[in-house]
Amino acid sequence: MQRHTRLLRTTVVGGAALAMTLSLAACGGSGASAGKEQDKIHILVYGDATNKVEKQLVDTFNKTSDVKAVLDTIPGADYQTKLQTVISGKQAPDLFFNWGGGSIKPYVDAGLLMPLDGLIEKDPRLKSDFLPSVFNTAVVDGKPYGIPMRGTQPVLMFHNKKVLKDAGVSVPRTWDELLTTVKTLKSKGVTPIALGGGDKWPTQMWFQYLYDRVAGPELFAKAAGGDKNAWASPDSKKALGMLRELVDAGAFGTNYDSVKFTDGGSPALLATGKAAFELMGSWEYSTLKDAHPDFVKSDLGYGTFPTVTGGKGDPANLAGNTNNYYSVLKSTKHPDAVAAFLKLMYSDGFVKSQLGIGNLPTTTNTALFLADADNPEYSKYQYDLVAKAPAFQLSWDQAYPPAAATTIYTAVQQFFNGQSDADAFIAAMQSLPAA
Amino acid sequence: MTSSSTVGRPGFAWAVPAAVFFGLFALVPLLLVVVLSFTRWNGIGSPRFAGLENWDKLLDDPVMVNSLWLSLLLTVLGVVVQTPISILLGVWAAGHQRNRAVLSAIYFVPLLLSITAVSVLWRAVLDPNFGVPSQATWLFGDGNLLGVRAGAIGVLVFVSTWQFTPLHTLIYQGAARAVPRVLYQAAQIDGAGTVRQFFHITLPQLRNSIVTSMILMVVGGLTTFDTVLILTQGGPGTDTTNSAYYMYQKGFKSFDFGAASAIALLLVLVATLVSLVMVRLTGYDKMRSTMEGV
Prior knowledge:
The structure holds 2 protein chains of 2 kinds. Chain A is of the alpha/beta class. Chain A has helices at 3-10, 16-27, 51-64, 79-86, 105-109, 117-122, 125-128, 132-135, 161-167, 175-187, 201-215, 217-224, 234-248, 265-271, 284-291, 293-298, 335-343, 348-356, 376-388, 396-399, 405-416, 422-430, and strands at 40-47, 68-75, 95-98, 139-140, 143-144, 147-149, 153-160, 191-194, 275-281, 300-303, 318-321, 324-328, 392-394. Chain A folds into 2 domains: 15-151 and 324-364, D-Maltodextrin-Binding Protein, domain 2 (3-Layer(aba) Sandwich), CATH 3.40.190; 153-320 and 392-430, Periplasmic binding protein-like II (D-Maltodextrin-Binding Protein, domain 2, 3-Layer(aba) Sandwich). The longest helix of chain A has 15 residues, at 201-215. Chain B is mostly helical. Chain B has a domain at 73-250: MetI-like fold (Orthogonal Bundle), CATH 1.10.3720.10. Chain B has a two-stranded antiparallel sheet with strand order 1-2. Chain B is globular, with a radius of gyration of 23 Å. The two termini of chain B are 18 Å apart. Chain A: InterPro entries: Bact_solute-bd_prot1, SBP. Chain A: Residues 1-25 form the signal peptide. Chain A: This is Sugar-binding lipoprotein. Chain A: Pfam families: SBP_bac_1.
């Protein structure tokens, strides 16, 4: 599950300050590994439950290939750091898991990654078999650097059907309806919207969706491309004003910054009926299914982010984690084996096994196998959204290079809780390095 | 130095193994960090020399300045809160009261738990909607403890205190037991009560232990990291971003190892300075002993 991509940042890393000196000391060190490495390709992936499928894939691949694939898994919390330290050394993997966008930009800039247009020319299905909105997320400087793997995770608006019914309100379709609903729910003593502000990235979701609805995907694309004026544009200010209005209306209550998603705080608010809505990635479903199965069975509802009247963005646009990607190291000794392995990413077997564990792959043939999914109805709903989305906004923190994440989180949190105003938010976002 | 003063004292050679390890695992990395602080390096490829760039940026960085103040504040608050509690508990635990051993064992438990587990535990206990604050709204209001500056700092100080008081209690317990009994017997004969005995015998006799314990607290306070990482992640905003956490953020979140190294060095400098001042002010450097004849 890529919900761990989120946990990555928040999970406990004991003694990391000390590890800093140690890992720095280890950098100059040896890379001696036993055995013949010449006839192997190493695949580095984020260590979690999905590894089950990846192990099967590697086994399948090794049955027929002369060059054997080796799967290396790194526990989630350490993945990004480990990748960063090995990628320029002798232990660099031939293929590695990533989030596309800004998360691979530094490696592209350092000339470490292979542009995949050559492989795609030989095997056009490496591009044509994937949903375009997803494939494009791993395009950097006009060239593709990643083949989608695992599943897509759009952010959806979840709700508690019982709470809405008891309060006599329906699911709001527009922003104005949302504001009215918030007032009604508040008068009934319910926190209208659950928010794990302590994690900061859930707060960011409100920004990335509303910006898309108000200004369309172009504003963020420009801003991330280095156009600092985009953040100071009237559309940007309008979106900030609308967020302010929502927060000031008490939509999130007053203690959201003490609540986290990662420790189950905000999902529990939704499941126990203390809150009516939560804006969260599609992994919310499996999170809730683990912790509150009865609620999922009877009262969990889901839908899309409200539309904004007069907004420039298409109401069908999505935001979230488009997918994960395999990127290829330029210096790989076995480009043919790598190409052969990547072909598996659009194979029927791959799609079926991912659906079987609850992931939603983004190949064009996924629709044929949706009946095999863990929850066919929910998977189909998501798949249709992704397939029809004119644009899919990758989470801001991943669209920008890793260096920007901390600044984004701080700016987002401070604006939301009133520690800073629109001007300070704009200034903070303008200080970010271009993606 | 006369020959008599070295009799029975170990020669320098005894220190060689320790010195080698210290050099290898403390001095060499420290030197590397010094070098790194003058470079720009995101972990990919080789560091590039950047002159004073990192230092320049840091000294103008409001978050950095704030983080140093915060480190000092957390340290001072830690010392002020923990010292009286652990002295009282330690002196009490040094006595022979009924059930003393059982009670002591109970409050040593926090010390046995990892600070990570402790932080996760308190995070759950303090959850505004499902934890203690939701049951005691008269005390906690809306329970937004970690969402406001004062609350977040308070929680950090509280959790560190909860975890580390037992350690300092242990130090004081040992020290209080080492106080010669004759002193108390003499005081009793002179008619001094428990309170007077505490202030005029116990406290002065604990002097060196107080310094030892406070130095440990200061070093621990300046490098507070785990609790910040788990409880607040430096938030709200940058309100609890202390220097150690800021270093981690720069290094492992922003992959700016040059800046992270500069922060690390600044922290080393501040910590050294603080401990030097402490050692001077307390006269610890004179190695005076309170025991007779030594």
